[in-house]
Amino acid sequence: MSNFRRHILQWGAIGVQWWMASAEGYAQTVMVPVETREVVATLDSVGKVVPAVSADISPARDMVLEKFLVSPGDTVKKGQKLAEISMKSVAQELKFLKPYGDVLRQNVQLSKINMEVAEQKLERTAILADKGIVKSADLDRAKGEAGGYRRGYESSLAQLADIEGKIKGVNKQLDEIALVSPLDGFVAQMAVDPKQLSGAYSARAGSLLMRIDQPGSYLMQVKMSDRDFLRLKEFPDCQVRLPHTNPIPCKILPPIGVPERSPQSVAALFPVEARFEFTMRKIPKGLESKLHLSAKTAQKRLLIPWNAVDVEPGKTFARKKVGDKIERVPVNLGWRDAFHVEVLDGLASSDLVEAKVWPPMKSKT
């Protein structure tokens, strides 16, 4: 290791030790006034943008695509064919089954006619046997022929049902492998660039081939703490801030999904959606953006810095100056931002509170 690098690491270790010492026991305290100020309550949360209406196109079975008929960005209609699919094996099976089914239908009709003729002959022979005109052997022969033709008819019916079932199964396969758009929209994503594809493309069952989005309407999915979630009604003004665009008005939708709890925190994260309209249609799915909520109107609030608050389980305190002493008084807190917090009761605008400062700084007094 070079001397230069060794010196850098040594100075870095010294800096970390100084910072830890400052954070643990060398914080400076300053007295700050409790201030009354008009503020507009806001709440910001980062989330991901997804199309409000979208469909993933995936094959129900392994297949070979001979040709893609669309490219990314193309507009498609509901029911429009998206790719040419190789159906050689399925088509060959269907080519054999259909003529065989037609032959079996003819066999069923012929067997039914022969059965009906044999049953009529049996009926006449039975009448003649009762009158003694024909022998019992003739009656037994007629019964055997009628039974044989009936079994032939039933066998033909069974064969026809089996073939029709197979034809139905093949047609179901054709429906499963047919790739058509389920909605009007545009091709937002494809697994492969058709322009760079040479030859056939093998697609596995369940794999994502492409995504069809309906343009114009989008959802922003965010997760916020239970504290912020309970305050949603305070913020009627909703804006989505996409990268490189002006803020877009939105509408807060009811929460979706199940609140999640982090092992490091007792607070739950509540999933919330915001819907907004956008003229551009090619917004990447999962784009990270900011959801900005505002109360619109300013309110007078009694504010102190965050570093003037002591927090204990279920309790909050401020260090208030009373004469020459510092007293710890309980306070109830309300609105807050990154630097200040509203005091609902426990302090007055004329009070001074003690705040900690890291690292120590020189006082201007």
Report what the structure shows.
- The protein has helices spanning 3-25, 88-130, 136-177, 226-229; strands at residues 28-33, 35-39, 42-51, 54-57, 63-68, 75-76, 83-85, 185-190, 201-203, 210-213, 217-225, 237-241, 248-249, 251-253, 260-261, 268-277, 287-294, 299-305, 309-312, 315-322, 325-330, 332-336, 340-345, 352-357.
- By secondary structure, the protein is α+β, with helices and mostly antiparallel strands.
- The longest helix has 43 residues, at 88-130.
- The protein starts with a helix and ends in an 8-residue tail after the last strand.
Concise synopsis of the structure shown:
The protein has helices at residues 3-25, 88-130, 136-177, 226-229, and strands at residues 28-33, 35-39, 42-51, 54-57, 63-68, 75-76, 83-85, 185-190, 201-203, 210-213, 217-225, 237-241, 248-249, 251-253, 260-261, 268-277, 287-294, 299-305, 309-312, 315-322, 325-330, 332-336, 340-345, 352-357.
